Amino acid sequence: xxxxxxxxxxxxxxxxxxxxxxxxxxxxxxxxxxxxxxxxxxxxxxxxxxxxxxxxxxxxxxxxxxxxxxxxxxxxxxxxxxxxxxxxxxxxxxxxxxxxxxxxxxxxxxxxxxxxxxxxxxxxxxxxxxxxxxxxxx
Length: 138
Known about the structure:
8-stranded antiparallel beta barrel, 49% strand
């Protein structure tokens, strides 16, 4: 009787909980097809009131373009960069383009992980590191 109950419990686990575990692993996967499209996010500006915003348009070829809008002086930075996917992390590497000479041509990086349907992690800018969450635009 005890062996039968143990067998029923094991089979129940396989049919009920095991599929849930595999879904959790799949949800962390980042693929170029999943990334493709426009994403938006931001962070509080460290100098002035308001949020800086970033919009990124990922392609499936490992490249993206976008822009960063800063509350500090209303500056707009164009972003041209590449991304690479390693395990469950995406790393963005690129360069700012702007009329603002102190930033133009400077490098930036970001390291993000999938969190459900969002990307979360760190943005490493010219003068600061920020927490960043990106959401796909509809």
